[in-house]
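HOLO CASE FILE
Compound: zinc ion
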Amino acid sequence: MAAASSNPPPAALVCPKCETSMPAIATFCPGCGHAMKGIPPADRVLAALAYLTLVPAAVLLFLPGNRHSAFVRFHAWQSLLLWGAFVLLSIVAILLSNIAATTVFLLLGILALLAMFFLWVVLSLKAWQGELFELPVLGMLAGRLR
Ligand SMILES: [Zn+2]
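Model generated. Tokens follow.
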């Protein structure tokens, strides 16, 4: 025997759903995940509960004296990974949106500054040339106030 991994163990079980062959000790079909041995109802409930956010999954996995079946542990881990990815993506999205908002405000601020500078130049020039140059709303107000 050179290497055990090069010789797959003889197939002793065949999945009734997808006909994948697997060793006799397999609990689940590696092809489609079909349960090859009956899953107790309590384990199914626990596995389903594992998806109610991170907390039950973490409790199922890390609480001492809670050595559940591979079925429950699989779903608990899957829930942890899924919720972990969701939380991580949410944080990234919030950070990115904050950066985007900051960038937009910065650009608007620069635009406003440029517009103000442009107006200052134009209005100063018009006044110096002796023109009564009215800005849209503000000029009308100034006309009333003088
Ligand atoms: Zn299968």
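CASE NOTES: The two ends are 104 Å apart (CA to CA). Residues 70-128 form the longest helix (59 residues).
CLOSED: yes
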